[in-house]
Amino acid sequence: MGKIVSIVNQKGGVSKTTITANVAAILAEKDLKILLLDMDPQANLTSYFIDKDIEVKDAATIRVLFGQEVVKNPDIVHHTRLTNLYIVPSSSTLAAISWSTGTLIDAQRRVSTFLSGVRDGFDLILIDTQPDLSTYTLNALAASDYFLVPLQPERMSVNGFSLLSETVNVVRSINSTLDFLGVICTQYDGRIASHKSWRKTIKDTFGDKYIGDIHSAAIMKDCSDRKMTITEVDKSNRPYQEHLVVARALANVIGVKAEWLQK
């Protein structure tokens, strides 16, 4: 049974989507079967893997899970261009219906119900959440075994973790096994004194839950603009190695035993 991990932070611009896309690509390249769920109406993760010229109707996206009636066994899993990597795409119409999702029957369990029917077919399921604590994010957490938090080395990002913790405690009333996987320090620049200071604070605060750093790098911006993963562009650089560290943390969670985990 595939483990489910949500990448969560209510603050935008902390590299949730970038981490999700690139770590998934690395794991898929390591012969693990990965499913991505794009729970953000901006659909940035979807745009990494589904060409903008290809029209995907709402009935084939995550949107179908949030209708008034529960659709049984919806056909919303799409193969991407990368071997072993699949995605449930998002839809911009999620934003338009967000106000009404709280009134749906079993509103917080729509994603969990869907994933219970497909998780056996994957080694790992990664959920990219939107930058808030809406019904969609609550759905992601309610369905997850773990949550992973990208944090920028800045006061606002670090302070926002307490609000996320409160939300997680609420979610545990319906998903008591939800566990904290760890934090990643993102967009780190060691030349900036405040970054160095906040990075130390994050490391000291989270201890062995501190997974590692992902530095700010021009190549990652280039990958994002081109809607390509680091595995498709350049595996010889530091950004690839840093995302590999995160991939190892996730692989350990699902019990993978492989030589690449030991390096």
What does this structure look like?
The protein has an 8-stranded mixed beta sheet with strand order 3-4-2-5-1-6-7-8, with helices on both faces. Helix 1 crosses helix 11 (238-253) and helix 4 (110-116) packs parallel to helix 5. The longest helix has 16 residues, at 238-253. It has helices spanning 16-29, 44-49, 93-97, 110-116, 135-143, 155-159, 161-171, 193-206, 218-226, 230-233, 238-253, and strands spanning 3-7, 34-38, 78-79, 85-88, 124-128, 146-151, 179-188, 210-215. The model has no long low-confidence stretch (mean pLDDT 88). It has a single domain, classed as Rossmann fold (3-Layer(aba) Sandwich). It has 11 helices and 8 strands. The protein is an alpha/beta fold and 263 residues long.
Mind sketching the topology for me?
Layout lengths: L2 E5 L8 H14 L4 E5 L5 H6 L28 E2 L5 E4 L4 H5 L12 H7 L7 E5 L6 H9 L2 E6 L3 H5 L1 H11 L7 E10 L4 H14 L3 E6 L2 H9 L3 H4 L4 H16 L10
Helix pairs in contact: 1-11, 4-5
